[in-house]
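Please produce the structure of this protein holding zinc ion.
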Amino acid sequence: MSVRERWQMQCPRCGDSGLHIDAKQEVTVQLHEDGTNEQDRGNIAWESQDRARCDRCDWKGTVSAAEKAYKTAARVASDALGYEVNDLQLDEVYHEFRPAQLPQQRKDLKTLEIAFEAAGGRGVEQADEIDLLRVAIAVLPKLKKPRHTHHDGPIHQENPHARTDTQIAHRRSP
Ligand SMILES: [Zn+2]
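Below is the modeled complex.
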């Protein structure tokens, strides 16, 4: 059983399932004149509003956001496949496919589907790859974009005014 399958949560930003949660544990203690003695440990528990974070991408949020992200991913992936996605397929997609490669993934999927069709629907490896691409194309656009990014374009567009000012300054300099 994978972490994802066991806990049905994932990072809303990168899809990783190895999250950290600020959980609570009840401990029974006995009072002494110089402090306490731990007696008994209870269950570990967390609630939907408890904090969760992801080491892989530094996302911080709540348990309920991580649960919602998993539900959405499982639903859209299963819709795309026509059968229920398994958690290992999701693990593989989030670790091997990047949102920036989506246009290429769509092209690859078309090519593979045509080849698979031409081969009369044979080829287990091709079928697996087709399924992974279908999952990737369904779940990657659902990932939350990072608020600050230092690469990958559209979020950080250069300020056109700043660029003009620099060009003017450059032209004026001797
Ligand atoms: Zn993450």
